[in-house]
Amino acid sequence: MQITIISRFNRKGRPTQDRQPDYYTYHITGTIASIIAYRNNMLRRKSCFIIATNQLDYSAITDGEVIEIYTKDQQKVERAFRFLKDPMFMASTLFLKSPKRIMALMMVMTLCLLVYSALELRIRRVLQANKATFVDQKGKPTSKPTARWVFQFFAGIHIIIVGRKR
User: Fold this and answer.
1) Sorting pLDDT into bands at 50, 70 and 90, what band is 94?
2) Which of 45, 48, 145, 152 has the largest count of CB atoms under 10 Å?
3) Which pLDDT value is given to residue 88?
4) Domain boundaries defined on the chain
5) 130-156: burial string, b at 16+ Cβ within 10 Å, e else
6) Residue 83 contacts residue 116 (beta carbons within 8 Å)
């Protein structure tokens, strides 16, 4: 580490030789070093995380398989929570004071996500079983549309009456 003291003057131009500086600035130069054991310990702590499963039989699935399944499906979970933060969901327009009400709202929103995911799965399975496709946002056929796109696609339809005679 090295500290360099630089004299500073308030007036512009070259100061006279006998003039004392008005103030000083200090510049510190050096390198950063860390304790290797501390750094490795912190990396190890960041590497630990908890993943829960409802599989009670330890011999049925290994810890590595649980992590592999989680990392494979993590994108789906993240996409679902991104849906909750979407302005179209309008969750930000609610103002709740009580922690109990916030927890209740989160429970309802989680239940909505469950229904949303189940609907999306059902749509995709029916399309796959019938070897059918659905037009995506780019106009190309897909067998894996999102439920949100299906909702937006049918947004203009308000009432459908099928097979009713007058």
Assistant:
1) low
2) 145
3) 65
4) 2-35, 91-166
5) eeeebeeeeeeeeeebbbebeeeeeee
6) yes
